[in-house]
Amino acid sequence: MDDHTTREPRTGSRRAGTGRGRAPRRVRAVILAAVAAVLALALATGIYSSAQARTAANLAAASAAPSAPTTAQASNPAPAGLDAAARKSAPSPPAGSIDAALDAKVNAIIAANSQYQFGVALVDLSKGAGSADAHEYGVQEKFVAASTAKVLAAAAFYHLVETGDASLEDPMGSYTAGFQLREMIQQSDNDSWSLIMDAVGHEELTEYAASLGVSYDPETNTLTPAEMATIISGVYSGTLLNAGDTAQLLSYMQDTNYETLIPAAVPEGITVFHKYGLLGDELHDAAILAQGSTAYALVIYTKGQDESDIPERTEVIHQLTQAVAGALF
């Protein structure tokens, strides 16, 4: 296009020069002025047309090609649920809800794996829900809770601290009570659990559980998935403990020594606080899934033949977690 705009004036100049000897000087001056005006108009028209054509081509290309991510987006891709908000081109989509479609998905996964016992409880914490508000799937009776019940023991001991009946600095075993609490939750240490249980007292632990609306006997260590959902919901919502103790207990429920169940199946961008349980044929995980102001308690209890089918049950736990997270976040 640049070649075209430079040739046109030269052609006009040769035309202007063809009548130079026959016209009077005044006429020649008028003719030259007119030619100059014509050339100026032609140049302006040619330049404008060229720029207009380039602009149109660029707009067409931009519309046809997908927009490239910025450097920050490429190195730190946003979670799918935050994509629209990150682009600022549309408001964030509303969070999902526990509806008939999700119920059907969860029930279908459980039905497809009927060789195992699965009990699932799901609570929407944005509503301040308790056990009565838990959505339950599969087996709703009590399971041997295994190590998931350690969260209840931890909450009971923190309660003693807050009422002045115990201290995190109290000697306990070879360490302090605070150390034993962390080991019991984050590393699922059974010796630490025994020490904490003894400090709380078995009867007192039963009474504390009852105050939460949970029926619990330390001797049998059994809970329904909905009861476990009540316990972790109370911890996360801050209704059981003060802010400092709540934050500390939740911190112990991250980066644990067994992250292969619910945490392994949660999409990036969702925070998980959890306590797993593994004892013989029992394989459980009790978790809080949180993102922004959205949070759910998800408890999955399972019972199989023995530890030989842990990989298969782990896969089903992943399927259930993905169904829940995909629908709610």
The number of E-state strands comes to 9
**CATH homologous superfamily heading of the largest domain:** DD-peptidase/beta-lactamase superfamily
Strand content: 5-15%
Number of helical regions: 13
The main sheet orders its strands as 2-1-9-8-7
- Which structural class should the secondary elements be placed in? alpha+beta
Give the topology string: H per helix, E per strand. HHHHHEEEHEEHHHEHHHEEEH
CATH architecture of the largest domain: 3-Layer(aba) Sandwich
What is the mean pLDDT? 79
The major sheet is characterized as:
5 strands, antiparallel
Poorly predicted tracts of residues: 1-93
Head-to-tail CA distance between termini: 53 Å
CATH structural class of the largest domain = Alpha Beta
The shape is globular
Helix content: 40-55%
Give a written overview of the molecule:
The protein has helices at 2-16, 25-64, 71-75, 83-87, 100-111, 150-162, 177-186, 190-200, 202-211, 225-237, 243-252, 262-265, 310-328, and strands at residues 117-124, 135-138, 143-144, 171-172, 175-176, 222-223, 271-279, 282-291, 294-303. The protein is an alpha+beta fold and 329 residues long. It has two domains: 2-70; 100-328, Beta-lactamase (3-Layer(aba) Sandwich), CATH 3.40.710.10. Strands 2-1-9-8-7 form a five-stranded antiparallel beta sheet, sandwiched between helices. Strands 3-6 form a two-stranded antiparallel ribbon. Strands 4-5 form a two-stranded antiparallel ribbon. A hairpin with a 2-residue loop joins β8 (282-291) and β9. α1 packs antiparallel against α2. The protein is globular, with a radius of gyration of 36 Å. It starts with a helix and ends with a helix.
